[in-house]
Design a protein that fits this description.
The complex is a heterodimer of chains A (322) and B (262). Chain A is 39% helix and 26% strand. Chain A has 322 residues and is of the alpha/beta class. Chain A folds into two domains: 220 residues, P-loop containing nucleotide triphosphate hydrolases (Rossmann fold), CATH 3.40.50.300; 65 residues, Alpha-Beta Plaits. Chain A has a six-stranded mixed sheet with strand order 6-7-8-3-9-10, sandwiched between helices. Chain A has a four-stranded antiparallel sheet with strand order 2-1-4-5. In chain A, a hairpin with a 2-residue loop joins strand 12 and strand 13. In chain A, helix 3 packs across helix 4 and helix 9 crosses helix 10. The radius of gyration of chain A is 23 Å and the shape is globular. The C terminus of chain A is likely disordered. Chain B is an all-alpha fold. Chain B has one domain. Helices cover 77% and strands 0% of the residues of chain B. Chain B is built from eleven helices and no strands. The radius of gyration of chain B is 20 Å and the shape is globular. The model of chain B has no long low-confidence stretch (mean pLDDT 88). Classes of the chains: A alpha/beta (322), B mainly alpha (262).
């Protein structure tokens, strides 16, 4: 089967900085590929190469079987792009933005208007249709941006950090909209800094760091690789911390870390967390708070790369400054 | 759901028109640009006519009749950096990223800005020309002469604007665009017969003033507005316009490719 996205050994350098350093990515048609990484890992550069905005310096990048450099024109007519910075005209209304894109794509005036109205309805922007896009809230702007990238239904859609900076409600609304597009058969490449987002949307995830893919697999495989969940226990009295650590060891054989007045217990799945909690209750230890969390991106990174995500962020900022 | 496999193939010119309409539509949220566009030419007309006209030709009325049209054109000429600044702003805002990743003609993305600014120049010409008429300027060449002169001016501005497209695409800051405007436009305007007589210039400059495109334009306009035939001046001006388009359009397209797909 031909892949919708197929990237092999992709290299892109900006001066001395290797933004992409031999990255490999694949996405079968109709699936969502999540590209997860900190700022400056090379996510945006990968999206720019695949959407024909940047020429690579090495390796190959194919979209729908077409080399993006050789067949840029045809690739452009079959993809959609939502960049990190809204590609909308802030002075135009939501409707005008969509009509303009439809007109540029060849629609007649009447068809452009009909398509804009349909998209505004679908993305719950009908009421804001005649307001300037620059006056939209963050969530509305992202929805309009997503609508703008599917004015002509793309076969492959690139979403570069589509929910960065959004509140949780707007974020989950956007996730729903993306899932609908996927259900209609669109292949999506999504970059994100949030493990949670990749987990929600992606069929497979590629973790990228310093321009290279350092881990890939389904969300489940990846989380297993980085150690599943963590149970955080904060006792009322800090003297109880060693006791909590011992309990965790006896119950599930986990080695808990003590940090900032809390015992952090790695657990394989929620059931193990429940077992530890039951023992804590039996032992009569009073807890000020507790919680089961997914490992953060930082923890994934620490685990996979041995360095924290911020460190990579620094390199990126330096690269951006060049 | 609407079918989105649109049959209509709209060419680069139709796409340019869509882009121009987009730029003009933003006037509705920034109505002040309607005034901004004629402020420079208007102030240049008023200040030169009233403060220098009397000194140069006895009375400002005589000066207005001789130099009014060419001073208006010079004022419009000083407004063409708006094209470069507008493009620079669009590029900075990221508006062009999506458009560049779409199957849209590169020429149309740039020409849309130029086209929109041509509409604004026409608007400024109407307003400032109206002011000149109110001040007492009279045309001898009739309606046809006026229409021909307006056509010539707009063609000149269109060609010259492509130099601003190139600057807008290659400049790193807005200040750079302003600097280039003064560095390029001032000498062009002041070493022409727009409002001085070439014979009064020093020898070496005279040679340049004779072939200066602004001189060709000024003389063409004077002839058309006086009801005469511009002859060789029109030919010289058309040659300049063709040369500007032939040089700056390909250079701008190349700069665009470098900037957005490097």
């Amino acid at each position: 089967m031909q892949h919708a996205i197929e990237v092999r050994g992709l290299v892109k350098t900006f001066g001395a900085v290797r933004a992409l350093d031999g990255a490999d990515l694949t996405a079968p048609p109709g699936t969502v590929l999540g590209v997860l990484g900190p700022n400056g890992a090379g996510k945006t550069t990968a999206v720019r190469v695949l959407s024909t905005l940047t020429r690579s310096d090495g390796g190959s990048a194919r979209v729908l079987g077409l080399d993006v450099a050789e067949h840029a024109g045809e690739v452009r007519s079959r993809i959609g792009l939502t960049g990190q910075y809204a590609g909308l005209d802030p002075d135009l209304t939501g409707e005008q933005n969509l009509v303009l894109l439809a007109r540029l794509l060849g629609a007649s005036r009447a068809k452009a208007k009909a398509r804009a109205a349909e998209l505004l309805e679908r993305f719950e922007l009908t009421e804001a249709a005649t307001r300037a896009a620059g006056k939209y809230s963050g969530g509305m702007r992202r929805r309009l941006d997503l609508a703008a990238s599917i004015v002509r239904r793309p076969e492959v859609l690139f979403l570069d950090e589509p929910t960065t900076g959004l509140d949780p409600a707007s974020r989950s609304r956007l996730w729903e909209l993306v899932r609908e597009l996927v259900a209609e058969g669109t292949t999506v490449l999504l970059t994100t800094q949030y493990l949670e987002e990749a987990d929600h949307l992606a069929d497979s995830i590629a973790v990228i760091d310093s321009g290279r893919v350092i881990a890939s697999g389904t969300p489940g495989e990846l989380k297993q690789a980085v150690g599943g969940l963590v149970l955080r226990l904060e006792p009322v009295r800090t003297e109880a911390l060693p006791q909590l650590r011992d309990l965790a060891d006896w119950t599930i054989g986990a080695r808990a870390e003590i940090e900032e007045g809390r015992a952090v217990v790695p657990v394989g799945h929620a059931g193990e967390a429940t077992a530890v909690m039951a023992r804590v209750t039996q032992a009569g230890i009073d807890l000020a708070s507790f919680g089961v969390d997914e490992p953060t991106l930082d923890e994934v990174f620490l685990n996979l790369t041995g360095h924290r995500a911020e460190a990579a962020g620094e390199t990126e900022r330096e690269a951006a400054a060049l | 759901m609407t079918d989105t496999t649109w049959e209509t193939r709209r060419g680069p010119l139709a796409q340019s028109a869509s882009m121009a309409a987009r730029t003009l539509a933003s006037t509705r949220s920034n109505p002040a640009t309607l005034i901004e566009f004629f402020m420079i030419p208007l102030m240049i007309l008023l200040s030169i006519t009233f403060f220098m006209g009397g000194q140069m030709m006895g009375t400002w009325q005589d000066f207005l009749q001789y130099a009014g049209p060419t001073i208006i054109v010079m004022g419009l000429f000083f407004a063409i950096p708006a094209t470069g600044l507008g493009l620079f702003g669009d590029l900075k805002a990221g508006v062009f990223d999506r458009l560049t990743a779409m199957p849209v003609s590169r020429f149309a993305l740039l020409a849309g800005r130029v086209g929109a600014d041509m509409v604004r120049h026409a608007w400024a010409l109407l307003v400032v020309g109206g002011v000149a008429f109110a001040m007492g300027y009279r045309v001898e060449g009739g309606v046809l002469g006026v229409l021909a002169a307006v056509g010539v001016v707009l063609l000149f501005l269109f060609s010259a604007s492509w130099s601003m497209v190139l600057i807008g695409l290659t400049a790193r800051t807005e200040d750079q665009i302003q600097t280039w405007m003064i560095a390029l436009l001032m000498p062009l305007a002041y070493t022409s017969s727009a409002f001085i007589e070439i014979e009064t210039l020093p020898g070496a400059v005279q040679w340049w003033a004779e072939i200066n495109p602004m001189t060709a334009l000024s003389e063409t306009m004077r002839a058309l507005l006086a009801g005469g035939s511009p002859g060789g001046d029109l030919a010289a001006m058309l040659a300049w316009c063709a040369a500007a388009v032939a040089v700056f359009v390909p250079l701008s397209l190349r700069a665009y490719r470098r900037k957005l797909t490097s």
